[in-house]
Amino acid sequence: MPVSDVASKSLFDMGKEERNEEREGLLSGSQSSQSQCEKGEDALHPAWSRNRIVGVAASFILLLICGTFARSLACSRGPYYHPNLHFHGEEVRSNGTHDFKRTVLIISIDGLRADYLDRGLTPHLIDISKQGLRAKSMRPIFPTLTFPNHWALMTGLYAESHGIVANNFWDPASNEEFHYNLEASAWKPDWWFGEPMWETVGKAGIITANLMWPGPPKTSSGAVPTYFIPWRDRVPLGEKLEQLLSWIDLPFEQRPQLIMGYEPSLDQAGHATGPMSALVNKTLGQVDAFAKDLHTALEQRNLTDIVDIVFVSDHGMTDTSHPELVYMDNIIGEEGLNLIQHEDGWPSMGLRFYPEANASHYLELLHKASDENPEKFDVYTHETMPERYHFANNDRIAPIYVVPKIGYSLTTKAEGNTGMSKGNHGYDNKEPSMHAMFVAHGPFSAVVKALHHGRSLSARFLSRPNKGWHSTSDDTYVMNTFQNVEVYTLVMKLLGIEQHAAYTNGTVGFWDKYF
């Protein structure tokens, strides 16, 4: 029974009892009337009237409180209204001095492992996650490498679908090698499959800006971002902040609504000194200060209800300062090593043997070694690759893939541990240390937080009705871990252009409950 009905019934029953008492007083005969008269007029009304007034007043207050809460409960569980609920790309809002359309900033902090946020070194990212929302973690695609995952974030596709299957790999169709750090190689449009969000947004007639996001300046269809600044190493965070704000400050007709930015310093620190190092902690603080400066600048421009900021990362980082080495020449011999034509996908080894080699023989040797040492590495072919990797249906993926477990590194006797970093990634994407972060703040996350807060209040009331309801000091809405191929669709929904969205490997309707 609704709370308001309970309150109404109590008031009705009280009034009914009072009316019955009055009726009994009038109809109970002369004896009762006589006894009342004998008490005298002064004794007839005062105490009885006070009790009646107090009872009616108390019932009215109870009815008012219960009715108010019932309305709040209904709102929190039913259709919800927030001024930002239907704020999409075409609506124009004023910040007080200038007109703006809804704008999305997506900023990638390379190598920011999800649990870095629990170190107490990122007060601003934690603060805006309390104002907005945060995911427990974001699961990268396999392999957990920079270029495959940044293109997954842009396109919503797994590596087998978008074609960037490692940071370095060989393509048998073109007979060419992809090198992520060589513009002449990596910027060729034909490497990159799928439709990045900046291409989709451009098709919808929306201006875009790209600040060093890993990927090409032009897609195979010829699409380009409106503004594009190519990768340069060691660019100060302050310089990047100035560039982002310069785009925000452009005149209305020239201003981008989708802005992408990329920062690699944390990943570089993790590789150089390991994820638990002082350098990583220092860099983490610098990245958080950058996020705070960006948010402060938007506040100064009165844009926090107009601009959504989505902070993401591509993968995590694990300690590799003292790995146990797995020597491939101990498994397939010196002869087998010499018959490898192409090797892809470090820290995994994607192996392509020369045509004259007996690849089946070496595959058998690898399987035997893996079966004897299952804690060290796995060996897969396209047919045996775990389905959850979505890493088989593309000829760019080597036919034999050796994937090390956390704590192990694949090498040869000649190489040993030469060139190995103190921290690395590229391992199984279900490993917590490989998971990325997701924090959002702005009009979208404000709606999600308010809706979640209302639902939490109603849930607490319904589960503990005798204890009433109260506010909570834990205002952070933490989403469950989700896969990074969902981010593309989020941006489409934020800008109100879902009808233009390309096909993705994301979950249909994943974000619907948040809108």
Total helical elements: 16
CATH superfamily of the largest domain: Alkaline Phosphatase, subunit A
Average pLDDT for all residues: 85
CATH top level label of the largest domain: Alpha Beta
Q: Approximately how much helix is present in the residues?
A: 25-40%
Form type: globular
Radius of gyration over C-alpha positions, nearest whole angstrom: 32 Å
CATH architecture of the largest domain: 3-Layer(aba) Sandwich
* CA-CA gap between termini: 30 Å
Biased composition (Basic and acidic residues): 14-25
Biased composition (Low complexity): 26-36
Transmembrane segments: 53-74
Protein name: Alkaline-phosphatase-like protein
Give a written overview of the molecule.
This is Alkaline-phosphatase-like protein. GO terms for molecular function: nucleoside triphosphate diphosphatase activity; ribonucleoside triphosphate phosphatase activity. One of its GO terms (biological process) is nucleoside triphosphate metabolic process. It comes from Armillaria borealis. The chain has 515 residues and is an alpha/beta fold. The chain contains 16 helices and 22 strands. The chain has three domains: 3-77; 92-157 and 194-319 and 433-514, Alkaline Phosphatase, subunit A; 324-420, 2-Layer Sandwich (Gyrase A, domain 2). The protein has helices at 3-27, 30-39, 41-44, 46-77, 123-131, 146-155, 159-162, 183-186, 197-203, 237-248, 265-273, 278-300, 329-338, 359-372, 443-463, 487-494; strands spanning 92-94, 99-101, 103-109, 133-135, 138-139, 168-171, 176-179, 208-211, 227-229, 258-263, 307-312, 318-319, 324-327, 340-344, 349-353, 377-381, 400-404, 408-411, 423-424, 438-441, 477-479, 482-483. The strands form seven sheets. The protein has an eight-stranded mixed β-sheet with strand order 9-8-10-3-11-20-4-21. It has a four-stranded antiparallel β-sheet with strand order 14-15-17-16. It has a two-stranded antiparallel sheet with strand order 1-2. The model is unreliable at 1-48, 68-85 and 464-473 (pLDDT under 50).
